[in-house]
Amino acid sequence: MKRLCRLAVICIFMLFCEMVVPVSVHAAETNVQIDSRMTSISTYSTELSIFSASITGFVRGKTGVASTYVKVTLQKKVSGVWIDVESWEDSSNTRSTTITETYQISRGTYRVSITCSADGETKIVTSVENV
């Protein structure tokens, strides 16, 4: 149920983002991008919330997109180097794909990297660091 609620909030947020002028949004916990120069990807985002240990990756294709893919990788900074801790991936024959996972983390500095694609057009984005 909690997962469905998060998905609903993400979907509502993404619908709202499509109604505004294309901009880049950077916040402490969320990285959402809207890029009008891309031919197939409409929006994409990644989020890392240390407090709830929830990891989210999302891609939504533009109208007419037939397939989407998301891979989310949780990374931890160890001695100044980013190490992959865990990754999740999913694909769909629809215009959007979402991954929402929870993960038990220890103390440290983390970030999330997302690789997403829509009809073969690929984008790689990394969230801000969270301590």
Give a structural overview.
The protein is mainly beta and 131 residues long. The protein has one domain (2-126): Immunoglobulin-like. The protein contains 1 helix and 9 strands. The longest helix has 17 residues, at 2-18. The two termini are 28 Å apart.
Brief summary:
The chain is mostly beta strands and 131 residues long. The chain is 13% helix and 53% strand. It has a single domain, classed as Immunoglobulin-like (Sandwich), CATH 2.60.40.
Helix segment tally: 1
Task: Please name the CATH architecture.
Answer: Sandwich
Radius of gyration based on Cα positions: 14 Å
Q: Low-confidence stretches at least 5 residues in length (pLDDT < 50)?
A: 11-30
CATH topology: Immunoglobulin-like
Order of helices and strands: HEEEEEEEEE
CATH class: Mainly Beta
Q: How many domains comprise the coordinates?
A: 1
Keywords:
Immunoglobulin-like, four-stranded antiparallel beta sheet
Summarize the topology.
Elements: H1 2-18, E1 24-26, E2 30-34, E3 41-49, E4 54-61, E5 68-78, E6 81-92, E7 96-102, E8 110-118, E9 121-126
Antiparallel strand pairs: 1-2, 2-3, 3-4, 4-7, 5-6, 5-8, 8-9
